[in-house]
């Protein structure tokens, strides 16, 4: 079975002239006519007012009761297009979801020392993302296991969360705007370290890979594999429960990966490494001898430099629950293209930001932001953006401007309308916010795409799946190469967890995938004849 986790984000088309990737994936799935609808996954169980001193006292917390039988039915099979409803006092919110892939081919989970209690089977989970019905400018990210579901929704009203009530029964859930349960904004600042020569002004006209394809997948695209370490402090915070820690981390990355995906940027997890013994970066004690994010990142980089930078993936990050006074995260700018500096870190990672109602968006925003630096983007308050033809400056006014090397700071940019973008600091300004619905924004997005276009990266299908495939009767395990048509003229069945390589010219009749299939893409088209 597949992984199903729910995270929901609504993103308008900022800087896009065509349908955004998630809306397009839903449209393609609709065209197949294969829709599985579950309107009774939850039952409304009343609403309560926002918590005392909430940032938005006008919001309500909607209490929901989960139907375990329906959840089991959803998680027991793969859905080409999944529709679920979230009932509230204002009416039901209907989601349209397609399967999502967050794992790179060959994904691994490893602990520093063997843990006999680490029994998590990721095939027992499913990941989906998509949109709110009739809203093509939205994002829905969903994660479901056999007995739980979690999600986050973002739109112009803020971020909404679907989560199990902490310290309640397994069927008691809540659906709420995070500002209804949050009393103060978390502070965030990050430190960016240049990983190469001095940065010059950005004048981006990124080239696009011209790729053809003959599958129902939208296209073959380059992706960035992310190697992730969870430090010993984070392991201790979860009381040594590696299963729970891993589950929550995968939930987090599902959201991060979806934010990238809806801007046409593809990121996948290549390996998850858990320090269940003292790590070499922070030590075994809290507080740690490591006192700031710069020191932790430096130790992380030096550790891997000493191992020939031989981690699995293209960039490597360490996550910690520790707090530091200097920043909440740090990464080497453009580290994706300079292997000895392909490193970053995020602090303040914790199971729940607010009790008894968990919120996730601070951690999602911080990690997406730092990965954005690794992929080449500066802050939006940097002075080197070409904000109009021939004119360099800052995109917004959410932080003191960052000058180009050897120059004085430029004037601040304009105030963002409706909130800032991912690479901004707008969420730390009273009365302002960071709006996930805007994604990275046109200039940072184009910069990241240009870096990826010039980098030597593995490739995958943009939707992570090959569609319109029917049952066959021939079984084999190998590697699937996108863009190369096979010579095998017979029906093929691929069991879950394997990869398939069809790397010669010709056609195949039918391919049936049982469970998850990791795609290893090496060319531009794949032809499957039903």
UniProtKB/TrEMBL annotation:
The Peptidase M12B domain is annotated at 222-438
**Which terms does the record give in the GO molecular function aspect?**
metalloendopeptidase activity
GO BP terms: membrane protein ectodomain proteolysis
Record protein name field? Peptidase M12B domain-containing protein
Organism whose genome encodes this protein: Spirosoma profusum
């Amino acid at each position: 079975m597949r992984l199903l986790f729910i995270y929901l984000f609504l993103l308008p088309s900022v800087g896009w002239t065509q349908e955004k990737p998630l809306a397009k994936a839903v449209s393609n799935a609709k065209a197949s006519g294969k829709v599985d609808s579950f309107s009774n996954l939850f039952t409304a169980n009343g609403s309560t007012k926002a918590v005392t001193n909430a940032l938005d006292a006008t919001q309500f917390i909607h209490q929901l009761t989960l139907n375990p039988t329906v959840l089991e039915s959803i998680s027991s099979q793969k859905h080409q297009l999944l529709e679920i409803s979230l009932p509230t006092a204002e009416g039901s919110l209907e989601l349209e979801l397609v399967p999502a892939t967050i794992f790179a081919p060959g994904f691994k989970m490893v602990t520093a020392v063997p843990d006999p209690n680490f029994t998590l089977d990721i095939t027992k989970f499913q990941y989906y993302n998509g949109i709110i019905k009739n809203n093509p400018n939205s994002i829905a990210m969903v994660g479901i296991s056999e007995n739980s579901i979690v999600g986050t929704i973002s739109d112009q009203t803020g971020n909404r969360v679907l989560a199990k009530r902490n310290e309640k029964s397994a069927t008691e859930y809540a659906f709420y705007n995070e500002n209804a349960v949050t009393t103060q904004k978390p502070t965030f600042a990050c430190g960016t370290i240049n990983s190469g020569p001095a940065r010059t002004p950005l004048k981006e006209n990124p080239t696009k890979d011209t790729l053809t394809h003959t599958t129902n997948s939208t296209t073959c695209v380059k992706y960035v594999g992310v190697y992730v370490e969870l430090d010993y402090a984070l392991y201790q915070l979860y009381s040594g429960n590696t299963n729970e820690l891993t589950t929550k981390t995968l939930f987090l990355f599902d959201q991060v990966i979806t934010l990238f995906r809806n801007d046409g940027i593809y990121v996948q997890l290549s390996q998850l490494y858990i320090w269940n013994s003292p790590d070499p970066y922070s030590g075994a004690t809290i507080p740690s001898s490591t006192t700031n994010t710069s020191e932790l990142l430096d130790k992380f980089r030096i550790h891997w430099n000493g191992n020939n930078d031989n981690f699995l993936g293209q960039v490597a990050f360490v996550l910690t629950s520790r707090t530091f006074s200097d920043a909440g995260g740090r990464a080497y700018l453009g580290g994706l293209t300079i292997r000895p500096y392909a490193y970053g870190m995020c602090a303040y990672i914790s199971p729940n930001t607010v009790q008894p109602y968990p919120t996730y968006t601070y951690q999602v925003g911080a990690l997406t932001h730092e990965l954005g630096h690794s992929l080449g983007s500066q802050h939006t308050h940097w002075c080197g953006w070409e904000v109009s033809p021939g004119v360099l400056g800052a995109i917004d006014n959410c932080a003191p401007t960052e000058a180009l090397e050897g120059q004085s700071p430029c004037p601040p940019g304009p105030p963002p309308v409706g909130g800032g973008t991912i690479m901004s600091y707008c969420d730390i300004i009273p009365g302002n916010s960071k709006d996930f619905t805007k994604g990275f924004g046109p200039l940072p997005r184009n910069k990241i795409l240009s870096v990826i276009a010039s980098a030597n990266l593995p490739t995958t299908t943009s939707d992570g799946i090959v569609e319109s495939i029917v049952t066959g009767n021939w079984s084999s395990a190998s590697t699937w190469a996108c863009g190369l048509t096979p010579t095998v003229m017979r029906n093929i069945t691929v069991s879950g967890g394997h990869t398939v390589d069809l790397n010669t010219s010709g056609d195949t009749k039918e391919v049936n995938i049982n469970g998850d299939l990791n795609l290893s893409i090496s060319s531009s088209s794949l032809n499957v004849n039903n």
